[in-house]
Design brief:
heterodimer; A: 114 residues; mainly beta; four-stranded antiparallel sheet; 11 strands; B: 113 residues; six-stranded mixed sheet; five-stranded antiparallel sheet
Chain lengths: 114, 113
C-alpha cells in the first residue's frame, strides 16, 4: 500500500473484552514496530519484528499483550481482558531495512476501555 | 537497559525565538538517532536521521547535532513559528540483534505569539 495502515482507527470496548489491532506495513518493509502513547504522554515501545520474527517483546506491559506477524507482513497486536489502563493510542511503524532508513508511521488505533 | 532521556519535558517560547532540545542516551552499540516532530493527534514526522559519523544535519530551520562520544544530541530550532508547537521525539536505534528502537518520552514545545 501507499503507507502504513492501521485498523480500527477507533475502538471502544468494555473492560474485560479482548481486542485485536491490525497493522498493515508498507509492502516489502522488513521491520515493524508497535508502540503506544497515552494521552499527553511520551511514546512507550512495545515490541518489534524483523520479517516474521519477533525480536524484542520486553516492552509488552504484561502477558495480556501479544503480537504476531506470521507471514512477515501484516501484524496483529492482541490485548486480552482489557483494563482501563490499556486506553491509549497504539501506533505502528515500519522501515524498509532493519533499524535503518526512514520510519513510516501509521495513523494509530485509539483504544478506549470503559 | 538502553535508555533515551529528553529534556526539557516541556518548553514555552515566544514566536521568533530560538530554542534547543536535548537528547541523552545510553543505547549501545549505537546505530542511528532520529528526531521526529509530532503534532497533537498525528503520527510522528521525521526531521533528521543521524549516523555515528555525522555531527550536524540541518532540515530547514531545524538543526540536529550528535556527539557519539558523550552520547548526546540536540535539536536546535531557529526563528520559531507557531506551527513549531508540537512534541519532539528522539529515537535511538541499537545495533543489537534486530536493531531495536529506543524512544525518548519527548519534549512538548509551545510557541506563543
Amino acid at each position: 500500500g501507499a503507507g502504513v495502515s492501521q485498523s480500527p482507527r477507533y475502538k471502544v470496548t468494555k473492560r474485560g473484552q479482548d481486542v485485536a489491532l491490525r497493522c498493515d506495513p508498507i509492502s516489502g518493509h522488513v521491520s515493524l514496530y508497535w508502540y503506544r502513547q497515552a494521552l499527553g504522554q511520551g511514546p512507550e515501545f512495545l515490541t518489534y519484528f524483523n520479517y516474521e520474527a519477533q525480536q524484542d517483546k520486553s516492552g509488552l506491559p504484561n502477558d495480556r499483550f501479544s503480537a504476531e506477524r506470521p507471514e512477515g507482513s501484516i501484524s496483529t497486536l492482541t490485548i486480552q481482558r482489557t483494563e482501563q489502563r490499556d486506553s491509549a493510542m497504539y501506533r505502528c511503524a515500519s522501515s524498509e531495512g532493519q533499524g535503518a532508513g526512514e520510519l513510516f508511521f501509521g495513523e494509530g488505533s485509539r483504544l478506549t476501555v470503559l | 537497559k538502553n535508555q533515551v532521556e529528553q529534556s526539557p519535558q516541556s518548553l514555552i517560547i515566544l514566536e521568533g525565538k530560538n530554542c534547543t532540545l536535548q537528547c541523552n542516551y545510553t543505547v549501545s552499540p549505537f546505530s542511528n538517532l532520529r528526531w521526529y516532530k509530532q503534532d497533537t493527534g498525528r503520527g510522528p514526522v521525521s526531521l533528521t536521521i543521524m549516523t555515528f559519523s555525522e555531527n550536524t544535519k540541518s532540515n530547514g530551520r531545524y538543526t540536529a547535532t550528535l556527539d557519539a562520544d558523550t552520547k548526546q544530541s540536540s535539536l536546535h530550532i531557529t526563528a520559531s513559528q507557531l506551527s513549531d508547537s508540537a512534541s519532539y521525539i528522539c529515537v535511538v536505534s541499537s545495533l543489537s540483534t534486530g536493531y531495536a528502537l529506543n524512544f525518548g518520552k519527548g519534549t512538548s514545545l509551545l510557541v506563543t505569539p
